[in-house]
Specification:
2 copies of one chain form a homodimer.
Chain A: E1 4-11, H1 22-37, E2 44-48, H2 52-55, H3 61-68, E3 75-80, H4 85-98, E4 104-111, H5 118-125, H6 141-156, H7 164-174, H8 188-193, E5 196-198, E6 201-202, E7 212-220, E8 234-243, H9 258-271, E9 280-282, H10 288-297, H11 306-311, H12 328-332, H13 336-351, E10 365-372, E11 377-385
Parallel strand pairs in A: 2-3, 2-4, 9-10
Antiparallel strand pairs in A: 1-7, 1-8, 4-7, 5-6, 8-11, 10-11
Amino acid sequence: MRPIYILGVGQTPVSKESDLSIRQLAAAAVRAALADAGIERVDALYLGNMLSGILSQQQHLGALVADAAGLRGVEAATAEAACSSGAAAMRWGVMAIASGLHDVVVVAGVEKMTHTDRYATTRALATASDWDSEGAKGYNFVSLNAALMQEYIQRYRVNRSLFAPFAINAHKNALANPHALFHKEIDALIYEQSKMVHDPVRLYDASPICNGAAALVLAAGDAVGRAAAGRPAVRVIASAGATDSVGIADRRDRLTLDGVMFSSRRAYVQAEIGPADVDIFELHDAYTIMSVLSLEAAGFARPGEGLWLGLNGAIGLQGRLPISTMGGLKARGHPVGATGVYQLAELYLQLTGQAGPNQIPNARTAMAQNIGGTGATVLTHILRREE
Amino acid sequence: MRPIYILGVGQTPVSKESDLSIRQLAAAAVRAALADAGIERVDALYLGNMLSGILSQQQHLGALVADAAGLRGVEAATAEAACSSGAAAMRWGVMAIASGLHDVVVVAGVEKMTHTDRYATTRALATASDWDSEGAKGYNFVSLNAALMQEYIQRYRVNRSLFAPFAINAHKNALANPHALFHKEIDALIYEQSKMVHDPVRLYDASPICNGAAALVLAAGDAVGRAAAGRPAVRVIASAGATDSVGIADRRDRLTLDGVMFSSRRAYVQAEIGPADVDIFELHDAYTIMSVLSLEAAGFARPGEGLWLGLNGAIGLQGRLPISTMGGLKARGHPVGATGVYQLAELYLQLTGQAGPNQIPNARTAMAQNIGGTGATVLTHILRREE
């Protein structure tokens, strides 16, 4: 694959309220990324979004955002893969450059979810499920994740309070992230006493409904001379996707995320590394159970042992495998179509030494994984800081 | 660019009614394309769709359709660019192979539009407009195209009956297409007497609301050994995209489709040809005015002279520049997210001598152009039959 680098990133603060329209939100992130990269013009824009057609009566966001960001005329389109739409846009951008058809592109993700009533938003999110067998029957992502968490607790005979470290870690790491939705430290007691949303999923097991946009500039190796001077070069060394059945009833084993397994393995092969070589893992912690299942399927823990990485401190900033280093979906927030791009933007900050108090020293190889549905679409990207 | 070939195609009949769910419709086209290509397994599925989230409560169609078509596990995602979503999926598929990341992929498009009430469908289609300045103010695509047609009639002082040949040609060519929605010949009198939908747009100036799915298999040159034996090889020699403002009020000149101009020029440069080398042009005849403006902006006629190609017979099967050779959007039908793939599938049939009574003899170079909105996203592909 032709060498591809990230030249700069832009993020809007994740929020529960926003005066900006969805196009303005996305355009703000795109302009910030262009400014960060020191680039004025790109060949194309690939935008991740899931819900704009349903919640904002606006499809066709690619062309609309390109124009609003001052890029009228460039190729532009939207990538959708439910909550992994952001990483799907990244995948498209990577292919656009790897193909030689483009040299510099901007990849963005945007979601606006709080301007309609909560019922409408929950119902819109359920369009990521297998509607015929799940959504139409009243299932939503809280109840689907509750089913998986319940099954995990029963099969491995674990106490549900063991999930707490994932929420505590995310909230702690979000404290120093100016773009995070929550700046509130929590402890085991607060976790235990939080509202039961859908047994056994408590409020702090779930990521919040919110708004946000993130963007990054990708360029071919020979265009890197334009990158902001003085920063280490960050190369995309793997980009891989995989799918599984959308409905969880159709899975081979509900507690084994085959999509995560295949997507991770394909990425490891491309990058010529194994899980032990990953210094940071921005995983898809939409629910604490998703974090645990992801750690297992991606090869960081054996089945039934993902919880231990939370308990023994491995996932902390000083641990063996830091996750959710800027707050994750849980505390930075999960504006669904934007999440995959936030993850990559945060890894870029980490790999270029711009992560402030959350900086992971000497991080060189970092992996981001963005999941659609309860594991049906999984996109994995691995970045490496070049010496 | 790495050589890329189409190995086979599949189409479902375009219809006003369908017992199939949207996933079943898409899966039927995908399976037909795989069978036609003699391929059982692909690396990825890229699916064009615009309206499923709004009209079928189902996003996340990529993974869902992959699974339904027997491709569980492959990478899959949805491309959206309003009515050009089908060609956007093609663009993604082309990049996937050109990048070297994949060798064989399936590109599909699907739309199901007739199962809700007509008002809901019209409103859903208006999400392809600039919602704030157009859709929310009551504009829909009929009224937007009526505004353009009215302006054309006034600026160039032409009679509106001069638009008839485009509708007549499309209906005539659809007669022999088993996948076409309409099998009904019309003449100038029927056109003139048809219902005025929104002055000056008559019923026969507009494409119909309908359901359909189409798919094709793309492969790298070195995978072509697997292609169905005995057919000429059909190579993708250009793939290009461009955008313009979504709202027509923001255009440089409302009667000059800059998106078409830029997209076509980029495609001509890649293919190293000019308009005179195009043997067939499957253009985006969602409205007769769109055909005329497209012919002008793509370089086949000077501004104000596009109508003459209809009047002098150039657009007919025996003409200098056959268009809508299997019925076009007007008469084959315009299931929006699928249209771009239908266009490419039809060109494949033409270039491999499978177009039956509509066969264009000796056609070697063929261009398909798929448009989102009233010219805001434009994707152009050029195919060539290899000797």
